[in-house]
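Issue: copy button drops trailing tokens. Both records pasted manually instead:
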Amino acid sequence: MRKIIEKCPSCEGEMIVTEMRCTRCETVVQGRFQPNIFSRLSADNLRFLELFVKNRGNVKDMERELGLSYWTIRNRLNEMIAELGFETPQESPHAHNRHDVLRQLNEGEIGVDEAAELLKQMQQGGR
């Protein structure tokens, strides 16, 4: 099934759903229905959200399942948050303090090599 179109293909105005039909008994309900916030997500980000929920928000499990790094997953989450219309802090992967890096290492969110690299970059940056 296709994603609900949010913007008019002609003028880019907001689209609303005006009719819903039961697939079993063919009952039709007419009215003005607002799509939910998740209909704003691209197909890729909707699938990413499904995996995030499936993995109970555990980034380590997402890393294993997707074969992506912690920072790639974190960036995808930030993209999704922005796509939903929420503000996301503009941060670089290195804008963390020593405590954050050690916490992430302890919780298995990042590996030893990545933690060492982040700490090294912090030291070089004078943090």
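Record 2 (pasted manually too):
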Amino acid sequence: MLSFLRDNGRWISGGFLLTFFSSFGQTFFIGLSGEELRAKFQLTDGEFGGIYMIATIGSALTLPFLGRTLDHMPGWKVARFVIPALAGACLLMAFAPSILVLVLALYLLRLFGQGMMTHTAYTEIGRWYVANRGRATSLIVPGHQTGEALLPIGFTIVAVGLGWQAGWLIAAGLLLLFAMPMILSLWRVERTPQASDPDLTQARLGPDKTVAQVAADPIFYALLVGVLAPPFIGTTIFFHQDYLIELRGYDALAFAAAFPIMAITTVVFSLMSGQLIDRFGAIRLLPFYLIPLCCACLTVGLLTPLWGIYAFMFLVGVSYGFTAPLIGALWPEVYGVRNLGSVRAIAVAAGVASTAIGPGLTGYLIDRGVTLPTQMLYLSGWCIVASGVLALVSPVILRRTAEA
């Protein structure tokens, strides 16, 4: 691992920074301002969830068109546009004078933060690495968890001292003054095959498919049944964290302090997952990766003490640790790398759409008396059903790839 990091440090570091700074467009970070935004614009949980859903669906519809640029230009050139756009969205969040501007700010945060920052990182790493794809992907995943561990506490401290708008101003400054120059300098050098790379005969690559072929493939939609569960469920709980804190009477800072548990657990299990993916392949691991998420849903639904949140964060960390490297390696294993930017853009857009529907649908149910813990029990059932579907399609994919 140390040798791998020494030889590939610049590309791994660039991917890590992209995933870290994507946090400003992720639900957990936006949710930190949820209470203030609802108060400012006099919105209920359901109304705010609906606005968030509209903005996120808009970003999901845009992402397939914007994401395909990675098939035509290097990642650093895409990042050169994406990072300033995300910084502009942070500024809009700080000064939004109306609901329409708020919707625009949320749309840009979701498109360039959750969407393009992560899409750029995973697409380039998936293309640059073949036999070491699982290991390389597992090393950029901790960028997300580092953001989840540090930014909620940092934002809370800034908001208490200077106001929540100051947190968004600092986010914009970090993107422009630190993230952009660092990422561009690291990624300006394209990665080429190294002498230390494993023999490509060890690699797992599916037959190259066009976007049209992927869209017509029933297997793709069967995979989405499982792939969409983590973003939908994770977004739901983190978007409504203020509601859950109020419902259960938790201390806000104590809740924020649980994020490092999730972050550390995710990093540990991400590294384990990367090794397992390179050894067994992402497709063989598919039927099992939702089991920890199922347990996490049951934890929120059934455990009311504060320590239940810490147990939930641990289980979500286990789930996320397996999910991110696995999904990063999955699409090349199923559909090849020639059109990876376009194929991943469709999958990422579907994931973004699920993060839009989650807050909107669950917020609507909350307004009508169905508590979030009750909803989490039903979502655990989704994980069970999805695991069954993935167990059925995994051998089909392996057989199809071998025949091709």
